[in-house]
């Protein structure tokens, strides 16, 4: 994996740190600290530390830095301190706060804190240097700190990280800037403050909770939930879908998680900011990092049969690097948000020992970079469809397909006709039997009551039908439902039959 | 006579009671499905009078269903068909309860905005007949009647007497309530079915029935149900030979096959409508040479004629049951020309009644 700017590298390191935190399955802390110690020493120390599982060298061995831009002014040296990677023995020190940039780790049984220096501008086996390790002095913790010193502009880097975190609804994060005490910058992005997820929450649950939080804070533009627009959480209709496949090249499972959120916001409240109006911003993440959705995945999104869910997609457009879905006939108070996250289920080297990785480094075998696009296309489609199915399963009335809506249009006529068959029958016993099937007492029966009672049942059956997969056929396979005419159409369509043929 | 009439009436009433019961059973089953949250599934047998696979080992002639269609609430078109069928059933229930009759056009105008088109009502009536396993007249749905009759016959329809014998060349309508036809008396030697009213009138003008003891019927183009039912009734009762005279073009040929084999749309009820005894009297494509039809009367087949003729060649029953008919149709397509019955009158106005028909019957130039 090659980076051309320090900013890009930093975002990658943050993303890796987050993944280690997720894998620990405990509450962790991730700190990004940018320190300029004094004006006489103007380099910026960038520290990214986490209390997740320990790092493995494989994460770093294929990182390359190719920039020759003097503006970066970085020697390519990345320092790493980490406990070894032992995922089954982790535990959490919830209360620990990392206030000092040099304290790195929270951890467990491994007795050592390993230190490395990695030259990202170098090549061959000499680029990783193992430094003397420190003892934990009996403490149990795990974690990592990656840090580097560069002359990169603090403000530019801060802006990039800020944007990254703002979009990264999947990350629970503290970012600090303590350049000089009086200009301390502190911003906390917590996932869903209002609805705390349990420690054991899955990635998908966090993603769901994250998008809810993102939406109710108007795209994280507010610090807290907008109570004017979202007085209650019930306004949010959320559907989730997960699709998996095996990435044969890396022998790991590739997971695509999709969350679709539909919110109804009163249009009278015009004071609140809506960045993309009625369009849907598609938030896309790869391995916990926000990134731009590929063109092919965008086309896949367009190819989804949204009409099955009562939605009319006009098309997908890209606007300043943001993918937007435009809708037709979407009620003005309805807004749709979509987030997609594709990631490898197994974090690199979880299944390998630290030692074996060291061997890998020595033989300079570099794993192929991750390319997920071809697999992602299929996963996008499956996951989004599952999320839509989920929405429909829980809110069937709101997501009736256009076909079901048309069929539902016949419900009043159908109800009226069936009620007519019952009420116009001269057989009173038959009438009584039908009333009791409908749960009606004979004395309360009027035409309107019978009709509405039947219509209610018809509508419920149509909604139920719409939830089932569309290739569902109750009909025995020998039936040729689609075959309109068993003989040649050419012969049958014409005036073979006169008006009095009947 | 009065006794017979009463018997016919009570048979009709019994049939109505059975049908009303079936409609109630159907409604009850539908309601049970809906109240139990089940999507209704109504299977309707599908029939065909022929298939388009030549030499096929098919069962088209068996009158058995060849499959089923499903009416459900899963498809818009099927849902609409279900609504229309139920609405027709509702009308039929009222007709049967009140012992009234209605035409399919009357039914269409009951709810034109729902039915949208007459053909939709026609299909719904057919669906209802198939479901209820009955014929259309059992639903008390009848046509206005389009057929005409003349010749050596006398019969009654309910209380109405059709005394054609007293004036054999006078035109009478074909009875609509065929099930009420009784007391058929005839001294005819054969029945002649003609395609067109113009030819029917020509024969009347020529006093054809004076010289020939026969019964002449026309369906005025494609025959309607009463005409076909009545013809079948006559053939069953009188056991007379029956001949058919149609134009020498694909439409004439198709009308001929409709009399003999029934139509595709009414395939479910074909066994009550077809007349397998019917013989083709003319006009054959080969007649143009035999009877010296002037060249100017031979018109080229249009593209539409050719398409229709080619499609008809594939009908399974032609090869199986009337290969000679098929050969004539093939000849028509090979020659690429068609001509009307009236073309035979080019020699003399009375050629048809004085020469053509009698000579055909006498010399057995029929198929």
TrEMBL record, chain A:
GO MF terms held by the record: protein-macromolecule adaptor activity
A GO BP annotation: reciprocal meiotic recombination
A GO-annotated cellular component: condensed chromosome
Transmembrane regions: none
Name of this chain's protein: Type 2 DNA topoisomerase 6 subunit B-like
From TrEMBL, chain B:
Keyword field contains tRNA-binding: no
Keywords: DNA-binding, Isomerase, Magnesium, Metal-binding, Nucleus, Topoisomerase
InterPro entries, alphabetized: Meiotic_Spo11 (IPR013048), Spo11/TopoVI_A (IPR002815), Spo11/TopoVI_A_N (IPR013049), Spo11/TopoVI_A_sf (IPR036078), TOPRIM_Topo6A/Spo11 (IPR034136), WH-like_DNA-bd_sf (IPR036388)
GO BP annotations listed: meiotic DNA double-strand break formation; meiotic DNA double-strand break processing; reciprocal meiotic recombination
Gene3D superfamilies: 3.40.1360.10, Winged helix-like DNA-binding domain superfamily/Winged helix DNA-binding domain
Start and end residues of each Topoisomerase 6 subunit A/Spo11 TOPRIM domain: 190-361
Any one Gene Ontology molecular-function term assigned to this protein's record: metal ion binding
Occurrences of domain Spo11/DNA topoisomerase VI subunit A N-terminal (ranges): 81-141
Tree of life domain: Eukaryota
Catalyzed reactions: ATP-dependent breakage, passage and rejoining of double-stranded DNA
Nucleus among keywords: yes
Cofactor dependency: Mg(2+)
The EC number(s) this enzyme carries: 5.6.2.2
GO CC terms: nuclear chromosome
Subcellular location: Nucleus
Residues in the signal sequence: none
Family: Belongs to the TOP6A family.
Protein name: DNA topoisomerase (ATP-hydrolyzing)
Organism from which the protein derives: Phaseolus coccineus
Organism lineage string: Eukaryota, Viridiplantae, Streptophyta, Embryophyta, Tracheophyta
